[in-house]
Amino acid sequence: MSLPPVPNGALLHSTGGVLPEKKRVDVNKKDRRHRTPLSLTAESGKVDAIRALLESEQVDVNTKDMELRTPLIIATEEGNLGAVRALLESSQVDVNTKDIWGRNPLWIAARKGYTEIVKALLGRKDINPNFQFRDRDMTLQGTPLGIACYHGNISAVQELIADERVDINARDPAGLTPVHLSAANSRRDILRLLLTRPSIDALTPCRSGNTPLHTAAEIGDLDIFMQLLCFPGITNPDIPAADSWTPLGLAIRHARVGIIRALVKDGRVDINGISGAGHTPLLLAAKLSLFKVVKELLQVEGVDVYKQEAEGEMSFAEFVEKGNSQRMKKLLREKAESGRH
């Protein structure tokens, strides 16, 4: 029995994606946007028409339009699950193909949160699950897992981390891991999920030198910070970043009172340690006029109001005495009096 004829793009539109029985045309004929009948059926999601086209030995399953999108990329971008599944039935379909912007189907599906499409794509043995996308302005980049974390697509994240081929610690061009991206964008449920994975690395610094804990201290999300602080893999919450800022120093710098309290209560930080700009936590808070923070730090056991940044430098006590803040001076007097009792 002969195969049914295949229409061109215009005829396909006019027939609503149904293949006519008689008129034969070029199966790979392109319209002015370089779309073939297969491209158009992928876009419309006409599964029966896709399967009929795939029966032709002449059909180019990896044909590209003006934006270098193959039928698989088009179907993925449109969220047409049935079309994606039909296309994946062909062993000739390139599942790692890239469009003009450098995106591949899995990355697109992960970004858009098309979980079932992610699952279908991962079903192919030849898929590259750790593909790295790099855009020109660096706003969107990284692996499918990274972009799913960035956008908060937790179902897609679940599918990806369940696949043993996926590198859950893969870094994007900026050095950010999925844990970093989840912390930086307050994706609390995703971070909680990632931290259950035995091989997860919550200590890796990004290119700027910050670990996820530094990032969490900086953005001020207490839930995110506490998840990381309580994570067994983080044994030293007082670790300095490449620029010498500790999480405590960053929390003070950005006035994250809840995080400051959490670190002090944790007990693993040096309350008199030098951080960032070369200041002790107490002096840094005073220089930033953070009265509430100074008040809380002065109540911490072991805090040293006379600790100098370096020999010959000013201590917190000297800074307050030479300053004009009467409230700070009152706090210093109260601290001195409490020390005499």
Main features:
mainly alpha; disordered N terminus; 341 residues; 2 strands; Serine Threonine Protein Phosphatase 5, Tetratricopeptide repeat; two-stranded antiparallel sheet; 45% helix; 19 helices
Question: Could you explain how this protein is built, in words?
Answer:
The protein has 341 residues and is mostly helical. Among the domains are: 94 residues, Ankyrin repeat-containing domain (Serine Threonine Protein Phosphatase 5, Tetratricopeptide repeat); 105 residues, Alpha Horseshoe (Serine Threonine Protein Phosphatase 5, Tetratricopeptide repeat). It is built from 19 helices and 2 strands. It has a two-stranded antiparallel ribbon. Helix 12 runs parallel beside helix 14 and helix 15 packs parallel to helix 17. The N terminus is likely disordered.
Major β-sheet annotation: 2 strands, antiparallel
**Shape estimate:** elongated
What is the annotated CATH architecture of the domain at 237-341? Alpha Horseshoe
In whole angstroms, the N-to-C terminal distance is 103 Å
> Which spans of ≥5 residues are poorly predicted at pLDDT below 50?
1-7
> What is the tally of beta strands?
2
Give me the side-by-side strand order of the main sheet. 1-2
CATH class wording of the domain at 237-341: Mainly Alpha
CATH homologous superfamily grouping of the domain at 237-341: Ankyrin repeat-containing domain
Give me the Rg, rounded. Answer: 29 Å
Structural class: mainly alpha
- Overall pLDDT confidence: 91
InterPro entries: Ankyrin_rpt, Ankyrin_rpt-contain_sf
Keywords: ANK repeat, Repeat
ANK repeats: 208-229
